[in-house]
Design goal:
The complex is a heterodimer of chains A (about 525) and B (about 425).
Chain A (H helix, E strand, L loop, with lengths): L2 H32 L8 H7 L2 E2 L1 H4 L1 E8 L1 H23 L6 E5 L2 E5 L6 H11 L3 E5 L3 E6 L1 H26 L5 E5 L3 E7 L4 H9 L4 E11 L2 H5 L10 E6 L10 E5 L4 E2 L3 E8 L5 E7 L1 H13 L5 E5 L2 E4 L10 E8 L1 H13 L6 E9 L1 H54 L3 E2 L1 H30 L4 H33 L2 H34 L10
Parallel strand pairs in A: 1-19, 10-16
Antiparallel strand pairs in A: 2-8, 2-18, 3-4, 4-6, 5-6, 7-8, 9-11, 9-12, 9-15, 10-11, 13-14, 14-17, 15-16
Helix pairs in contact in A: 1-2, 1-11, 1-14, 4-5, 4-6, 6-10, 11-12, 11-14, 12-13, 12-14, 13-14
Chain B lengths: L14 H21 L7 H4 L1 E8 L5 H9 L6 E5 L7 E6 L9 H14 L7 E2 L5 H11 L12 H19 L5 H4 L7 H10 E2 L3 E9 L1 H29 L3 H24 L6 H29 L7 H33 L1 H24 L1 H15 L3 H5 L1 H5 L24
Parallel strand pairs in B: 4-5
Antiparallel strand pairs in B: 1-3, 1-6, 2-3
Classes of the chains: A alpha+beta (about 525), B alpha+beta (about 425).
């Protein structure tokens, strides 16, 4: 054995051992996470879990949500308007009616008596996010583009954070929560097969507000508004109650616009049961929240306080005494609902509403079925190819079979090491890779045959065959890799999975078809001084 | 064994016939698409809802239709899967105008009420309920009375039991009665009793449910087209630079595009739906087709390096002949894998395999009859357009009689000395 050959064998051995070890180590670490029994998981578990399977093969829920950033913009606008009104009142600046032409603008009516210099100071100091256009009679405010982008961006970031908290509390193994584009969120929950519950959990805005009730409940909103001349006064708002099962009519409450307490003041929440076994959620406030709450409840004994969740009144109990740091939300909850409500309250509110753009549930049965059939078909296909190659090329065919098996093993190892997820399109990439690996071997063998036909000696034929086929193999592989890179760059999820498998697979295919196959030939024929015939 | 030994077929002689045949195939496909008023997009692209259910008994499709009529979904379709003995049904509901309606849940509850008879609301439906809900209910009643025991977390303990029960459901396909669930290995008698009295088995198991909004569909379409277009452009540029010849690059891309067009057309003709799986198959096909073409091109380039001046057609013909056995063998081997997928791969892989089967046949054909003829036709066209170039470059050529076939200049300047020998 020549020195060169020894080095080659060593390299091949090292690469294969590294990939196999990588696969097993990855599999172990993954199996360990799910292993609850004593000791460490068995090897068979590790072998099964080396490659992360996509939802289409494993079962689970895939969701794409859109964050309605307009909600966050509107909330910011309302906040700032209240801020401006409060400051103006404190400074003695008279402000007229407020109009809202859009989510990112408002107009304040200004009378001739208004101190415009003072107002200008106020605006500069308290509304830095707004562009102002003062005209006589009305000041127009528009949200600055930079601020707008910031608000939208932080709404999405915060939504992702909140969803992650909720899902973590719910307990899902290996969830994927990622931002997609500007305002979309991709969520993948493997193994979950209860879509309704998860969806409700994610989507519930869980925006909790406690507001003082001015009037209501009443089924007639006009009656509530009568004392105010049929108009909703600027500091108040109308809120519906949550429809109870079997209840057809809607009740309205007229409440103060400014909330006493919001979800941000919450320290903790947990499901509890009331006297008669009704489910409820008890919440606990942060110190600063408790201070505010104590202050307001002390001043408003015997008034009603509306507990509003996602803009619906859950209940409106009467304040009997000063309350400091805890309260209870009642309603007709099931035990599960109370549990989930406490969970979302703990995890925090969403800054904006969500819309489901895409939702895919793959039940565990289908996943199991697909993978079982996919594996059977691949194994049968591979065996057929092996058979054909050996029948056609005899002894050289075995070289190809070995190279192909190595190719598959290395690809599995690489996918495990890269922590790639194998999906159905990924399998497509796998098949194309194997196809091209077969092709590389065929190219080489056909070249060797040609050389033999041209009367070259077997050893020269092997050398020439490999070197001539090499250029072709490199060309075909680079062309396809280039296309895969573009697919990765511009494609969406499934297309990306295809591209990753393909790129990794083709790199490995060059290695096995050219380097490994050549080494095997050398090993077989290199030692002999003279070869009479090749079995090819 | 050898199938082809030094064939010498004049492939290019048939090039105009081949081009005619290609156009005919493309037109047939386009015709099929036109008759169907556009491609039949699956919900991945068109949006809407698609639900696959497995029933315990063979479902009555007419009754199912009546039940769903009450939902007010607009148009919907019900289709049996190809293996009818598995009692699997695909329900498809069009995109809903009204936002926020949870079509999946509505369909499921309608079917459950319509086909399942009266439902005992106090019991858990083992066929529909997920692992988590089952685990939660088990933990709440604690049949094995593990609460308070050291080293046991109640939730985890029952999560494992629930997992086993659900896995059992996947294995048997569907539970026909709670007794089926009791065949789950490794659960205690207490749990079995609990299952017997607290659970029921509904008429179906949810295999999959997909709900795609209209925006996502159009986004996906745009992105898929964009990805394929840019990757083709990338290949065009690589081949153009590598072979130092624009006609080669264009030939390869036209051949690939040709394959994709014909495959899409034939899929439409077979009434197949255009979805993400088809996209994956088309991407595979693009890779396969280009690979095939580059192999032939490479041989042409090599054959052009010989000092002997031959007409381009002869060189191309010889190159195709030399690579013929490889082309057939590789196509055949790939076909074996795809055939296995087609027959054994199940519902999901079936369309994928069919697309590839068409694609491999067309791809093999096009690397011989589309990619190379384009190079020849291009060269002939250019030579005819610029008759002055050759005489100016070489005085002797100008004197040659204009009648006979012009000895074609090497289409491609020899590539730089290849570095293949180095290793």
């Amino acid at each position: 054995m020549t020195k060169k050959l020894r080095w080659r064998l060593l390299l091949i051995f090292a690469v294969v051992a590294g990939m196999v070890a990588g696969y097993i180590v990855t599999g172990y670490s993954r199996a360990k996470k799910e292993w609850v029994g004593p000791g460490s998981p068995p090897l068979s578990d590790a072998l099964k879990k080396g490659i992360k399977l996509g939802l289409d093969l494993r079962g689970g829920i895939h969701l794409v949500l859109q964050v309605n950033t307009a909600d966050a913009l509107k909330a910011q606008r309302d906040n700032d308007v209240i801020q401006l009104q409060n400051q103006a009142r404190d400074q003695g600046v008279a402000l007229g009616a407020i109009e809202y032409p859009s989510d990112i603008s408002f107009a304040v009516a200004v009378s001739p008596q208004t101190d415009t210099t003072k107002l200008d100071d106020l605006v500069k100091r308290w509304l830095p996010d707004w562009n102002v256009n003062p005209t006589s009679g009305k000041w127009f405010f528009t949200l600055k583009d930079v601020s707008r982008r910031n608000i939208e961006d932080s709404a999405v970031t915060q939504a992702i954070e909140t969803i992650r908290n909720r899902i973590d509390e719910f307990g899902v193994a290996e969830p994927l929560i990622a931002r997609e584009g500007t305002d979309r969120i991709l969520i993948q929950l493997p193994g979950i097969d209860d879509p309704k519950r998860v969806k409700d959990l994610i989507k519930s805005t869980a925006f909790l507000e406690l507001k003082l009730v001015e009037a209501g409940p009443s089924s007639d909103r006009n009656q509530l508004l009568q004392p105010y001349g049929g108009q909703v006064p600027p500091n108040l708002e109308l809120v519906q109650d949550k429809a109870q099962p079997g209840q057809t009519q809607v009740n309205w409450y007229l409440v103060q616009k400014a909330a006493v307490i919001t979800g941000r003041d919450l320290k903790n929440a947990r499901p509890t049961q009331q006297q008669f076994g009704q489910n409820a959620v008890t919440f606990f406030l942060t110190p600063s929240g408790a201070e505010k709450f104590a202050d307001v409840t002390a001043k408003n004994v015997n008034r009603r306080l509306a507990i509003i969740l996602d803009h619906r009144v859950q209940s409106a109990p009467t304040i009997h005494e000063r309350i400091s740091d805890t309260g209870q939300i009642t309603g007709s909850f099931s035990a599960e609902e109370a549990n989930d409500l406490a969970l979302v309250l703990r995890a925090g509110a969403l800054p904006a509403g969500l819309t489901y753009l895409e939702e895919r549930t793959v039940g565990p049965s289908l996943g199991l079925d697909s993978i079982r059939k996919g594996i059977t078909a691949s194994v049968v296909g591979a065996v057929l190819v092996f058979f054909a190659v050996v029948a056609y090329y005899r002894r050289a065919g075995w070289n190809a079979v070995l190279a192909l098996i190595l190719n598959a093993v290395l690809l599995m190892g690489a996918l495990a090491l890269f922590d790639a997820t194998l999906t159905l399109p990924g399998i497509a990439g796998f098949i194309l890779t194997i196809g091209m690996a077969v092709d590389s071997n065929v190219l080489i063998f056909e070249r060797i045959r040609e050389e033999l036909r041209a009367g070259r000696a077997p050893k020269t034929a092997i050398e020439n065959g490999f070197s001539k086929a090499f250029a072709t193999i490199i060309d075909t592989h680079i062309t396809v890799i280039i296309s895969a890179i573009f697919l990765f760059q511009f494609g969406t999820g499934p297309v990306k999975g295809f591209a990753v498998t393909l790129i990794v697979g083709l790199l490995i295919s060059v290695f096995t078809a050219v380097f490994v196959s050549h080494t095997i030939f050398e090993l077989e024929y290199g030692r002999r001084e003279h070869i009479d015939a090749l079995s090819i | 064994m050898e199938l082809f030994r030094q064939t010498n077929i004049d492939f290019l002689r048939w090039k105009w016939w081949a081009i005619g045949a290609s156009w005919a195939l493309i037109l047939v496909g386009m015709g099929a698409i036109f008759v169907q008023k556009g491609l039949k997009f699956g919900i991945d692209f068109a949006g809407g809802t698609q639900i696959a259910l497995r029933f315990a008994q063979r479902p009555d499709i007419d009754q199912l239709r009546k039940v769903l009529d009450q939902g007010g979904f607009g148009s919907f379709g019900i289709q049996r899967y190809e293996e009818p003995e598995k009692n699997e049904v695909l329900i498809r509901v069009q995109q809903q105008r009204k936002e926020g309606r949870d079509v999946t849940q509505d369909v499921l509850s309608l079917v459950r009420q319509g086909l399942g008879g009266p439902i005992d609301a106090s019991k858990i439906d083992l066929n529909v309920q997920g692992r988590d809900s089952l685990a939660a209910r088990l933990a709440a009643s604690d049949p094995d009375q593990v609460a308070g025991k050291p080293n046991i977390v109640v939730a985890e303990y029952y999560a494992q039991i629930a997992e086993r029960v659900i896995r059992r459901r996947s294995e048997v396909g569907i539970f026909r009665s709670p007794a089926d669930a009791n065949s789950t290995p490794g659960i205690s008698t207490a749990v079995k009793q609990w299952l017997q009295s607290n659970t029921t088995t509904g008429p179906f198991v949810l295999l999959s449910a997909e709900n795609v909004g209209p925006q996502v569909g159009s986004d996906l379409r745009r992105k898929a087209v964009w990805a394929v277009a840019t990757s083709m452009a990338g290949m065009l540029i690589y081949i153009w630079l590598r072979f130092r010849s624009l006609p080669f690059g264009v030939g390869a891309i036209v051949a690939t595009f040709h394959d994709v067009m014909i495959t899409i057309g034939l899929l439409a003709l077979f009434g197949r739906e255009f979805n993400l799986v088809v996209i994956a198959a088309l991407l595979t096909l693009v890779g396969y087709s280009v690979n095939d073409t580059v192999v032939v091109y490479d041989r042409i380039r090599e054959n052009q390096r010989t000092p002997k001046k031959e007409p381009l057609e002869t060189v191309i013909n010889r190159s195709i002949n030399q690579t013929l056995s490889r082309t057939i063998l590789t196509s055949g081997a790939t076909m074996l894998v795809v055939l296995a997928l087609y027959i054994l791969g199940g519902e999901v892989l079936n369309t994928f395999a069919l697309t590839l089967m068409i694609g491999i046949i067309i791809g093999t054909y096009s690397s011989i009859y589309v990619a190379s003829p384009i190079v020849v036709i291009w060269k002939q066209f250019v030579d005819r357009r610029k008759p002055a170039v050759v005489p100016l470059a070489a005085g002797k050529a100008a004197a040659a009689p204009p009648a006979g076939p012009k000895p074609a200049a090497p289409a491609i300047p020899p590539a730089p000395k290849k570095k293949s020998g180095r290793r």
